[in-house]
């Protein structure tokens, strides 16, 4: 496993390249959730594709592109504050975002082939934002840029690997703050921090932390796309930003969420089911993160477990994998047969399914809605896989205009989602196509990346489905999972059973000794 130490520049504030409006902007009710008051961490690895077209000083090119992007996305250069009612607003002060340039003596292939999380020495690809739950008065974006010192690839990150089979593992507390660059108090007003790390193969790594109240994953990718457009020589971003946060703000006209969405109360359980959910009682530092890879072969093995002609055979990869992961996680955590478990699926309201509340092209605020399915443990464990897949699909299809508006009303009232206890709930997000075929710096293409730490700061209860390629170069999905050690061992066994063939027992586990 490769190890390296980044050589970093001093952090600096990058303001917009030109004068921008000085104003205060309101956030939507979806933006203003208390549960989103943290910095999301994202990392992207870029492979050099044109050394001749590579700028002589990539660091200067990235700085100029970030400043150019902030002219259009100027609220990102501002600061959050609370108004008199305790709601967050954005003061568009043009103070800037935190930028760090870094250099590492490593090549892109040393991060793993195939390129999958957990990435070695990921802390070297990120600058440190301090308390990631403290967002008021800080920069909204933190970015570190790293460069590999010879000819080649670039990794971008915000905030090791040893192949055994198909899942990778890391200890949750492996993310050591000792080697992170700390942003001093004089820079504390940022919403975003960006680090660009150059690699010696000519590529780079882009790592950044961005305040989740300001943007969701697709909104974050949209801003980075604007940066890549300008770096490529475009006069303006190819997608112009749209604010319009009132689209997802309560109108105060609908009845409470319990009239439409029965998730406002803790799940009702059978007798003898008062045992505490270990996912809430075990601290994250005592858990283990693993990443499970689903390529065409693994997806085919799962789909073959659904009878021919059944409607569930046409399920998407996300729906199919989510159903299996939910079942295996429920078994691994030892929930009792009479207890009820929940699945919360994050859906992008920009998607084609939302033909009732159109979100304009360029909207970069939080536009995710999260329908919730609920079922008795005994039923979930005993039903055919096809039934679980159909439950996932029906839950997604149930996000009607009325339910979407109802969710916004509930969030406005309670300032969080879901509006209930988090016992026995499993959250899943599909971020596979967030930046694929979108980011083009001209001299470098996106090779991989995503959310680098399973359960990182947001919630230890969730999984992210991320885009990747497997060892054969096939487009695949890698899914994060965070569990206590004993539960993870059982979960891995359960997944192996689902993926096994009668004549080919396959254990899907790729671990690392991070």
Task: Describe the secondary structure blueprint for this structure.
Blueprint: E1 7-8, E2 12-14, E3 24-26, E4 39-48, H1 58-72, E5 79-82, E6 88-91, E7 97-104, E8 127-128, E9 139-148, E10 154-157, E11 167-171, E12 181-182, E13 190-198, E14 204-211, H2 217-231, H3 278-281, E15 287-294, H4 296-303, H5 317-332, E16 340-348, E17 368-369, E18 372-376, H6 377-382, H7 385-397, H8 401-414, E19 425-430, E20 444-450, E21 462-469, E22 475-484, H9 485-499
Parallel strand pairs: 7-13, 8-12, 9-13, 16-19, 19-21
Antiparallel strand pairs: 1-7, 2-7, 3-6, 4-14, 4-20, 5-6, 9-14, 11-15, 13-14, 15-22, 16-17, 16-18, 21-22
Helix pairs in contact: 1-2, 5-7, 5-9
Quick structural overview:
21% of the residues lie in helices and 25% in strands.
Structural class: alpha+beta
Structural domains: how many? 2
Name of the CATH first level of the largest domain = Alpha Beta
Mean pLDDT: 82
Largest sheet descriptor: 8 strands, mixed
According to CATH, the homologous superfamily of the largest domain is Chloramphenicol acetyltransferase-like domain
Instruction: Enter the CATH topology name of the largest domain.
Output: Chloramphenicol Acetyltransferase
Share of helix, binned: 10-25%
| CATH architecture verdict of the largest domain | 2-Layer Sandwich
Q: Helical element count?
A: 9
Proportion of beta-strand residues: 25-35%
| Measured distance between first and last alpha carbons | 9 Å
Assembly state of the chains shown: single chain
Which radius of gyration do the C-alpha atoms yield?
22 Å
> What's the β-strand tally?
22
> Rough shape?
globular
């Amino acid at each position: 496993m490769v190890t390296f130490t980044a050589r970093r520049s001093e952090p600096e504030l990058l303001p917009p390249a030109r004068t921008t409006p000085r104003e205060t902007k309101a956030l939507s009710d979806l933006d203003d959730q208390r549960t989103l008051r943290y910095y999301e961490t994202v990392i992207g690895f870029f492979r050099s594709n044109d050394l001749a077209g590579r700028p002589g000083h990539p660091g200067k090119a990235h700085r100029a592109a970030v400043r150019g992007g902030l002219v259009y996305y100027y609220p990102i250069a501002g600061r959050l504050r609370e108004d008199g009612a305790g709601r967050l607003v954005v003061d568009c002060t043009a103070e800037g975002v935190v930028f760090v340039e870094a250099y590492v003596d490593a090549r892109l292939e040393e991060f793993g082939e195939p390129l999958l999380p957990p990435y070695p020495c990921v802390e070297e690809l990120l600058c440190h934002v301090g308390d990631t739950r403290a967002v008021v008065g800080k920069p909204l974006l933190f970015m570190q840029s790293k460069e590999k010192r010879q000819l080649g690839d670039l990794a971008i990150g915000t905030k090791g690997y040893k192949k055994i089979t198909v899942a990778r593992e890391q200890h949750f507390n492996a993310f050591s703050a000792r080697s992170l660059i700390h942003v001093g108090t004089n820079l504390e007003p940022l919403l975003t921090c960006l680090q660009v790390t150059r690699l010696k193969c000519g590529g780079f790594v882009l790592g950044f932390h961005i305040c989740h109240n300001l943007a969701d994953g697709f909104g974050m990718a949209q801003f980075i796309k604007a940066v890549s457009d300008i770096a490529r020589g475009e006069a303006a971003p190819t997608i112009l930003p749209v604010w319009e946060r009132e689209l997802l703000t309560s109108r105060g006209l609908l009845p409470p969420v319990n009239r439409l969405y029965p998730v406002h109360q803790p799940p009702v359980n059978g007798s003898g089911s008062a045992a505490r959910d270990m996912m809430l009682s075990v601290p994250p530092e005592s858990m283990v993160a693993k990443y499970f890879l689903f390529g065409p072969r693994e997806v085919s093995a799962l789909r073959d477990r659904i009878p021919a002609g059944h409607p569930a055979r046409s399920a998407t990869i996300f729906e199919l994998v989510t159903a299996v992961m939910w079942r295996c996680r429920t078994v691994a955590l030892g929930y009792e047969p009479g207890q009820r478990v929940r699945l919360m699926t994050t859906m992008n309201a920009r998607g084609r399914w939302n033909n009732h509340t159109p979100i304009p092209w360029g909207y970069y605020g939080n536009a995710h809605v999260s329908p919730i399915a609920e079922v008795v443990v005994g039923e979930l464990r005993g039903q055919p896989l096809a039934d679980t897949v159909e439950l996932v699909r029906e839950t997604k299809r149930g996000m009607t205009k009325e339910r979407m508006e109802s969710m916004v009303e509930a969030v406005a009232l309670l300032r969080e989602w879901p509006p209930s206890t988090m016992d026995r709930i499993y959250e899943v997000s599909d971020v596979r196509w967030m930046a694929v075929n979108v980011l083009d710096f001209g001299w470098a293409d996106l090779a991989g990346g995503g959310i680098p730490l399973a359960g990182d700061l947001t919630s230890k209860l969730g999984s992210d489905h991320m885009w990747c390629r497997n060892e054969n170069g096939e487009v695949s999905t890698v899914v994060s999972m965070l569990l206590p050690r004993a539960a993870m061992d059982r979960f891995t066994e359960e997944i192996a059973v689902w993926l096994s063939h009668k004549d080919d027992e396959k254990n899907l586990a790729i671990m690392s000794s991070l």
